[in-house]
Amino acid sequence: MQRLSSGVWQNVYLFNESIKDNILMGDEEKDDIPQVLREAALVDVTKEKGLDFIVGTNGDQLSGGQKQRIAIARALHAKKDILILDEGFSALDSEMGEKIERELLSKSDQTIISISHHASLDVRSLYDEIIEVRNGKNFAKA
Fold first, then answer.
1. What are the residue boundaries of the structural domains of the chain, listed by start?
2. Angle subtended at Cα 45 by Cα 60 and Cα 25, rounded to the nearest 5 degrees
3. Over the stretch 59-72, which tens digit does the pLDDT of each residue have?
């Protein structure tokens, strides 16, 4: 599963390295950086701080939303077939979260599994299938 998927979790860990290094994770392939910055809504952050900005210990120089967007960019850069978002937008305001989620869902080359306690009806309509779980049991399927 690890070979096929990348993920964004509610609790993001960043290394005390640059924004760029936290996205690339040692990968030398940099051609997709402009695209993943756009898809993760990080263009404004990198214009303000720069790609070489050192994020601090576990990203303590950034807001929670900025950290989560870097994690999204990292997962996109990994170019895996499956993207798992486990509360992947929880640190973002609803408008930013929906914007990024719409961007991700508009791509047809990746399966997205999103686990969330909150999803707007507009965004929910973009998913092929929704499984609602209550008390650990499959409650509804849409």
1. 5-141
2. 65
3. 999 999 999 999 99
Domain 5-141 is in which class?
alpha beta
The two tokens of residue 87 are 């509360």
Report the distance separating Cα 88 and Cα 114, nearest Å.
Answer: 8
Q: What is the pLDDT of residues 83-97, one digit of tens each?
A: 999 999 999 999 999
User: Measured between alpha carbons, how far is 70 from 31 in angstroms, rounded to an integer?
Assistant: 17
